[in-house]
Amino acid sequence: MSFPIQRPRRLRRNDTIRRMVRETELSVKDFIYPMFVCPGTGVRQEIEAMPGQYRLSLDEMKRELESLVKLGVPSVMFFGLPESKDLLATGAYAEDGIVARALREAKAEFPDLYLVPDVCLCEYTSHGHCGVIHDGDVDNDETLKLIAKTALAYAGAGADMVAPSDMMDGRVAAIREALDRTGYSQVPIMAYSAKYASGFYGPFREAADSAPQFGDRRGYQMDPANAREALREVRLDLEEGADIVMVKPALSYLDVIRQVRDQVDVPVAAYNVSGEYSMVKAAAHNGWIDERRLTMEILTSIKRAGADLILTYHAPDAARWLKEEQG
Length: 327
Ligand code: PBG
Description:
Layout: H1 15-20, E1 31-37, E2 44-46, E3 54-56, H2 58-71, E4 75-80, H3 90-93, H4 98-109, E5 114-119, E6 133-134, E7 137-138, H5 140-157, E8 163-164, H6 171-181, E9 190-195, H7 202-207, H8 228-240, E10 244-248, H9 254-263, E11 268-272, H10 274-285, H11 291-305, E12 309-312, H12 315-326
Parallel strand pairs: 1-3, 1-4, 1-12, 4-5, 5-8, 9-10, 10-11, 11-12
Antiparallel strand pairs: 2-3, 6-7
Helix pairs in contact: 2-4, 4-5, 5-6
The structure holds ligand PBG.
């Protein structure tokens, strides 16, 4: 039976029925908001390529957290800009490192805000790679020790969950073992499992000052052409003890999000990355698109593809818009 018996437009006739049959519902509870924390006081430095995003000193960070809590955003991710960088990424795991300090201060003032530090070394190494360099290449197994050490430092500082983004082999197992050995068996791991070597990270590298000083990250991040390999990475991370798996970036990889969602029974996160954010901002700035409409469409599509959690720089705006829609 088809037309004229079937008329799909009947269920699109007004907003009430459209809402009633809507399949995907975006919620503020889906969001994790990534933030950049830096030393100093009174620092609120806008990131040129990411209008509306800032490098924040810890006092300014707390003001920002207060407004996020008011908006109902449940969780934030921290990236750090250290005082100084070195070959061994000391700033990542130092007890008074910038992210450890941010975690302590945030946890003390906002105990219910769910804190998820990104665990990686690239913001802290002088060469900008995600690990220790030996003979011109990132040494996987040496890097694991420092990654685990960083995760431990963050757990000790009050992280609710840790999120390794370095793409070294075996990092989930290394972190799980280190956490369990030191009394943090309750701290979950959200693994950046399918993290692609992507041009969409461009603005982030300006924000976090983490561009590699030689070569690129294709030796450890995934080839954008591969989807089966993403499923393999996800399976390995789950075998190593990941609690949540992530696909990153989101928009050019919606097919990967869907395939991962269909294959696993853990929550799936997707990272709506810096370049995806900046493109919307740039087009909106030029008056070429409707920012609010595009943003909500993008976030809805990520959820429709199968993501349970969305890491997004749009989180505060989207939270505001969702509130308005609810009236
Ligand atoms: C650290 C890391 C990166 C991002 C998240 N964690 C940068 C990279 O891998 O080069 C990118 C986030 C974004 O673009 O918003 N390894």
